[in-house]
Structures are given as structure tokens and as C-alpha cells.
Amino acid sequence: MSRRVFIGVFDNEEDTMGAVQASRARGLKVIDVYAPYAVHGLDRAMGLEPSKIPWVCFALGVAGAAFKVWFEYWTTAVDWPINVGGKPWNSLPAFVPVTFEVMVLCAGVSTVIALLIASRLWPGKRPELLVPGVTDNRFAVLLEESDATFDKERVTEMFEDFNVLYTEERAESEQEVR
Amino acid sequence: MSEVMSALRRPWIQGQKSITQVTNDVFAPMERRPGAAWWAAFLVSFGVMSAGFTAIAYEVSTGIGTWGLNRTVGWAFDITNFVFWIGIGHAGTLISAILFLFRQKWRTSVNRSAEAMTLFAVMCAGLFPLIHMGRPWLAHWMFPYPNTRGSLWINFRSPLVWDFFAISTYFTISLMFWYVGLIPDLATIRDRAQSRLRRKLAGIFALGWNASYRTWQRYEIVYLLLAGLGTPLVISVHTIVSWDFATAVLPGWHATIFPPYFVAGAIFSGLAMVLTLMLVARKVMHLEDYITVRHVETMCKLIIATGGIVALSYMTEFFTAMYSGNRYEMFVFWNRALGPFAWAYWTMVTCNVVSPQLLWIRKVRTNLVAVFFLSIVINVGMWFERFVIIVTSLHRDFLPANWWTYKPTIIEVTTLLGSFGLFFTAFLLFCRFLPVIAVAEVKGVVGGRPHEGRRLEHEAERPRLVEIPVEGVQA
After folding, report:
1. Where in chain A is the domain with CATH 3.30.70.1110?
2. Could you give the dihedral angle defined by the CA atoms of residues A20, A25, A27 and A33, in that order, rounded to the nearest 10 degrees?
3. Is residue A125 within 8 angstroms of chain B, CB to CB?
4. B151 near B128, Cβ under 8 Å?
5. Does A19 touch chain B (CB under 8 A)?
6. B59 with B66: CB under 8 angstroms?
7. Which CATH architecture has domain B20-143+153-448?
8. What architecture does CATH give domain A2-36+133-177?
9. How confident is the model at residue A111 (pLDDT cuts 50, 70, 90)?
10. Which terminal CB of chain A, N or C, has fewer other CB atoms within 10 Å?
């Protein structure tokens, strides 16, 4: 299935932000914006939902810590208890440092893996750049030409108010747009 | 990362850079052939590193006896170097994680190289416990895996085991933090590359990054989470390193002040190392507009702050020993200041307590040659701090019959030099092949502020015609 999309290319963040806000105000669907750096506040302008990655971080961190406490208890008090300096088998306070480190390790690694999965990034993936230069000095706003009400002329005019460099219309498969 | 800044605030990046210029400036040293200075520095570092590895090979094949250790001083150079290098690494995490949480925008100019410094310093640090084992091929015994020795588990009550977990976690998280920060810049390298090899290599590591804002949004969250995890991590790492000593019931080591004292000292020494590296890099790579005198000044102020904590710790430690009423404790501290290693103690005090006070003076802070010199002095001082803590506490123990001294052998000195060789070799390779400044982050700082320059350009394109009534023409 393919859909028609409309692309406006800008050269600075203020114009991009303005164009996104104006598009949303007109009820147009902003599929995505491409930017060379993380523009502050653009997620709100685009109306993006907050990411769920912090939950992954929290859940895996807690799971890692819980596993480690159990593991330390099991190895030192159950599987082969060894008397070290007369300390109790279950030396909970002494288990705190390693538990903390393992928690950080699990939380950190899982967060990064979650980012890679959620954003579909993997080593050697062929990049699909919308327009050249979005990793350097260009900002691109990608709109969906949803239905007949999409008025190309008027959108172009609106983008021109924000000093658009050029606009483009494309038919893209769902796969590509993602 | 970007934010709207008041026009009244002085910009951190000089020269009214556009975002295109940022890419060009930072990528320039990478895209041209390395000069004679780079090759000279690289060959020297590589040579020193090779000498160090030769010393290590000799030590591993012959035995720990090649070191100057004895029954009384059973721990000296190796652990000193280990703590020294780990400490160096901590400034990288301070700049990348802690200052990120504090929204210090100036960090964007130095965070990439400071994080790289962290990684290389942790690599150097990891080398020492490894060779100190004597049989480094059994290093995996540190890991709790089911084994054929009846499944003999490691002792989770031991600070040395904590240390193993702390250092390996620290390295992993630092590596990920650094790499995640690099992904957008790797994509820029990929899309700019002229040579096929560079495009291909950068393409593999850029993970297909396409600058989509949906990805950026998640990326920002992940970066924030990693910074939030990295901050307590860095404190825990040096805390645990200090427990290697503090949990031993040895006068001079058995002190509750050790964790904060060590953490402050670590950041203090690391900042000095960041300055040493950055002052050279900005000059050689022509990044003066990005790493400005103001950046240097800010780091100097952090040095004053952390150096102050270190000085206070020295005094507290001494006072507590004198106030303790414990003869052994008192003796160790008198022995430190006046005993056979007094020269090391007073070197430490001069370098770490006296010399940073010069940075209160603005003229000194803005004189980059002076700052460079002081940064090296502080590094020397911080190495001596660890040497003093370790060797002076050991060499005269409870029984005078056991008193002995310690002198490093040529093998130990070469190994220490070799670790510097490894550090600088790795750093030079990093400067050569990767952007030393986080381009995507600096763009956020540059792009977010009002562009007076650009507005003027726009107006110049469309000159406004003003009718000037000229009187008298009609007449």
C-alpha cells in the first residue's frame, strides 16, 4: 500500500518548528520530522507521545537487582556456604555494592537495546534518508497527503512563510515511510 | 539538547557558527591527512606502549618477583596506577553525565573527548589488576560461573570482587554512553564520506540512523536515562575502589572518609587530565572557537572546587588520626609527613593543595600555558596521593621488626610508562578517526540561539526600498 507524502525542507530549527506548528494547527498529519540534532520542544510541537523506554529501564533494573540479590544469597548461603572471617552466611549488607552495579548494568544495557529495537536500528542497516543533508544541515518535515482536502498550493504557501528551501511530493510505500 | 537562549547570554561557541560550519570545522582534522605532529606523537606513544607491553610480557613470563614488592609492602605500584587511572576516567563521566543532568551546555564541546578519555583510562586501569594476578589467563575466575571446582563461587563479601563488578560495569556503561552519543555523528560521517571504506565502516556503526525525530525523541530519553544511571555509578565506582583500602583494618586505610575523599580526588585528577588533552587538541586541531578560554576557565573552577574537597580531606584525615588517641593511627600519619616518604607526601601536598590555589587568579586561569602546566602538576600530585596512601601505610606496620621500604624496579616503571603510551596511542587514534566534538550536540547549542548573523543575511537578500523625498529636484 502506498501513500502520497509531501516534504518541506528547511535550513534552521525555528522555521522547522514554525512549519510543524502551523501544519498541526491546520489539522495536517505530520508523519515525521528529520533533523540533524534533537530540536528542543519539537516532540511537543509534533504531538508525540512520551517514550515508554523509561519503563524498560526501570523494570530491567529492578529485575537485575532482584536476581543478583537472590544469586548472592544462593551462592554464599545455600549452594556452598564458606566461612569468611566469621561473617554470617547471608551477609546482606555486603551484597549491596554488587547488587547496585548489576542493577545499573541491566538497566543501562536494556535501555540501549530497547532504543535499538524501538527505532529499528541495527549494525549495517541501509539508511533511508528522506532528503540529502538531514544528518548535516537540513531539516525536513514530512506530511501525509491524507485525503482530497490536502491542498498542495496552500501548504506550499504556508511553508514559504517559513522560508522553505524546496518542497517535494512523493508516493512512498508504508515500508519506506516508517 | 538545544534550547532557546537569551540573546543577552554570551554564547559558548565563538564565531557565529552556522550548523554547516560546525560539521565542517570538527570534521576537517579527520578528513585531511594527519600532519607531522600527529605522526611524531603517535610514534612516541606507540613506542612507549610497546616498551610497556614488553615489560608486562617479561613480568608475566618470569613472575611477580620482578617487581619491587616485599613481605611488608605487598601492594604498591600496580594498585597505585590502577587507582590513578580509574580516577582519571571519572572526569569524563562527570562531564558527560553529571553536567548533563545539571544542564551545563558548555559540556557539549568537551564531552566526546572526555568520554573517550574515560574509556582509555579504564582500559589502562584494568591492565594492572590483570597483570597483578600473576596468572592473567585465570582472570575469568573473577566471574561467578558454574565451574568444575565443585562450583566454587566467588566471595561476594570481598571488596576486590565488588571492584571487579564496579569496573566492568563502569566500562560497559561508559562505552555505551559514548557510542550512543556517537551514532548521529557517525551517520554524518557516513553521509559526507568521500571514500568508500569510510562510508562503509561509518555505515555499519551508524546503525542506519536517518535523523528521524521519532528516533531522536527516544534517543534523548535514553541519553537522559544513561546520564541518570552514570551519575550514581561513577560515585559508586570510586567508593568501591576506596573500600579496597577502607575495609582493611590497617591504620591509614581504615577510615570512613575514604569514599568521598576518593571520589573528589578522582574527579579532580580527571579534570586536570581533560585540560591537558584539550589544551593540546584545540590548538593542534584548530578548535579554538569550540573549546574556548571560557571552557578552560569553567573547568579550572571545577578543579578549585574538587581540589578544595581533596585538601579538606587531607586535613580531616590528619586531624582524625591525631584525635583518635590510637597510637598506630597517629604514628602512620606522623610517619607520612616526616618519615622516609616525606618527600612523596609533601610533593602531594604541594601539587594538590597549593598549586590549584593559583587558579583563583583570573590571569592564571586564562593563561593557557599556565593552566597546561598546572594540569600536569595536578596529575603528578594525584599519582603521588595514591602512592602515599598505599606505600606509607604499609611500609612501617605494627612490628618494627617488619619495617621495610619500597623501591620500584625498572619493570614497574616501564609498565607505568607503558600505560601512558597505551592511553595516548588510543587517544591519538580517536582524534584521527572520530569527531572529537559531539557535533550533533554542539549544533543544538548553536542552532538554538537567535541568529543575528542569519537575520541580517535575509534582510540583505531583500533590500527594502525606502523612498527618500528629495527636495529641490523638481525645482
Report:
1. 2-36+133-177
2. 10
3. yes
4. no
5. no
6. yes
7. Up-down Bundle (1.20)
8. 2-Layer Sandwich (3.30)
9. very high
10. N
φ, ψ of residue A90 to 5 degrees: the values are -95, 90
Give the A window 20-79 contacts with B, CB below 8 Å: 32-40, 42-43, 46, 48, 50-51, 53-54, 57, 71-72, 75-76, 79
Sheet holding A2-10, edge to edge: A29-34, A139-144, A2-10, A166-173
In B102-203, at which residue ranges do the beta strands (DSSP E only) sit? none
pLDDT at A174: 54
Assign B267 to helix, strand or coil: helix
pLDDT digits over B228-268, tens only? 999 999 999 999 999 999 999 999 999 999 999 999 999 99
Q: What is the mean pLDDT of chain A?
A: 88
Task: Please judge whether B2 and A37 are an interchain contact, meaning their C-beta atoms are less than 8 angstroms apart.
Answer: yes
- How far is the C-alpha of B444 from the C-alpha of B15, rounded, in Å? 16
Q: At how many degrees (to 10) do helices B327-338 and B342-349 cross?
A: 80
Contact A105 B210 (CB under 8 A): no
Amino acid letter, A26: R
Residue B471 — very low, low, confident or very high, per pLDDT cuts 50/70/90? Answer: low
Residue contact B440–A91, C-beta within 8 A: no
Look at residues B190, B181, B119 and name the one whose alpha carbon lies nearest to residue B427: B119
What's the CA gap between B199 and A124, in Å, rounded? 11
* Cell of residue A82, nine digits: 564458606
